[in-house]
Amino acid sequence: MIIKRYKANNMNEAITRIRYELGNEAIIISQRKIRKSGVIGFFSKRILEVTAAVDNKKEEDKKRRHDNKDDMKQSVEAIKRIIDNKIKDTTLDDKAVPNNIIKSSNTPRGFYENSIVDKNNDAIIREVQQMKNMLNEVIQGSYGNIGRSKLQIRLENSDFSHSVVKKILNSINAMDDDREEEVKLKEVVKSMIKVDNKELEHVVVLVGPTGVGKTTTIAKLAGKLVLIEKKKVGLITIDTYRIGAVEQLRTYADIMNIPFQVIFSMKDMAKAIDNMKSCDIILIDTTGRSSKNEMQISELRAFIDKVQTSNVHLVISCTTKNKDIDVIVNGYKKLNYSDIIITKLDETSTYGSILNILQLAKKPISFVTTGQNVPEDIKIMEPEELAKLVLGEDIIC
Ligand SMILES: Nc1nc2c(ncn2[C@@H]2O[C@H](COP(=O)(O)OP(=O)(O)OP(=O)(O)O)[C@@H](O)[C@H]2O)c(=O)[nH]1
Ligand SMILES: [Mg+2]
């Protein structure tokens, strides 16, 4: 607060001086008539003494606010320009955002020249940082939907991979007729689903990652073939790696009263198959392997080569993440699988993964499994039924 006294001949003169020196915000605290000091003053004319005050903090704040406002305005302009560029790329990454604008004193003159370069004001840095976060959210949220049709958003929410979504949308766009979008969508999805309806024959090998349900599926298939189709079935396992794996399959073989053999080395394979030559179908269970482990996959390949069959089914769970589907489907391609068995349909409510698997594998689905019950939870599903699942019109409970 500044307090100042003015002596003037009249109030007009006092106010003019006060305004000039203290500004328009100044207020008059008091006024009184006085004589000049000293003896001469005693005989002189009375003059006016006016006391005025101004809140200098207010003035400083106002000035600071004004400066800050300017800075913020410039920050916003700078960010807006970044966003304008970035919206085209749909993301706003850290490299593009004002940390370097604010902190770097080496920023070349030019684009950010008049913005906030060289200002180390913590408050502004914080605010700009908050704005950056907010803008990122906005871009990834509502702005992320710009240019995306309802259909695209729906497909993405069904867990279809980007390439599958793109393929579906392109196919629909290429359809030059007046049918409803929903009808076209179903037709496109159905056309992307291939099912292998042919009967199982000779030697069938199941391969796939750990825990997807290979052994359980072998037991289900054996049950279906033996109990319903009255076929002669033999079971072989090469899974001596996991404790209990052999017993798991032996138990099913015992219950169904069918031949069962465990293979410990490659040279035993031909012999075991020969021993079961009276069987209509021989089902071979394998050890769950990571598709990333090339040595294990090569080992499996050597076993399969010994079997000399073209009936190799890749077993994969429909709960597998998109990125993992890619790795599994491609990693197992070395085994030249002929079909896909998709398991655990009962464990999810979005089935986009089915199309993702098929698009990458480019092989038909032989079976799907829908629960843990042996032998009933296995079936062949037609493209129509699978399309309904994939599009969310049906679910497996
Ligand atoms: N919910 C559900 N569970 C299943 C299905 N198929 C198998 N499972 C379960 O998945 C678990 C693993 O099944 P396994 O048959 O042992 O899997 P695997 O692929 O042989 O496993 P490894 O031999 O260890 O590689 C078991 O608890 C099964 O009951 C299915 O369709 N739905
Ligand atoms: Mg197993």
From TrEMBL:
Alphabetical UniProt keywords: Bacterial flagellum biogenesis, Bacterial flagellum protein export, Cell membrane, GTP-binding, Membrane, Nucleotide-binding, Protein transport, Transport
Give a GO molecular function annotation for the protein: GTPase activity
Subcellular location as annotated: Cell membrane
Q: Please tell me one Gene Ontology term that the record gives under cellular component.
A: plasma membrane
Keyword DNA repair attributed: no
Q: Which SMART domains match?
A: AAA, SRP54
Provide the topology term for how it sits in the membrane: Peripheral membrane protein
Asked whether the UniProt record includes NAD among its keywords, one would answer no
Q: What biological-process GO terms show up in the record? A: bacterial-type flagellum organization; protein transport; SRP-dependent cotranslational protein targeting to membrane
User: What is the role of the protein in this entry?
Assistant: Necessary for flagellar biosynthesis. May be involved in translocation of the flagellum.
Q: Which family does it belong to?
A: Belongs to the GTP-binding SRP family.
Protein name in UniProt: Flagellar biosynthesis protein FlhF
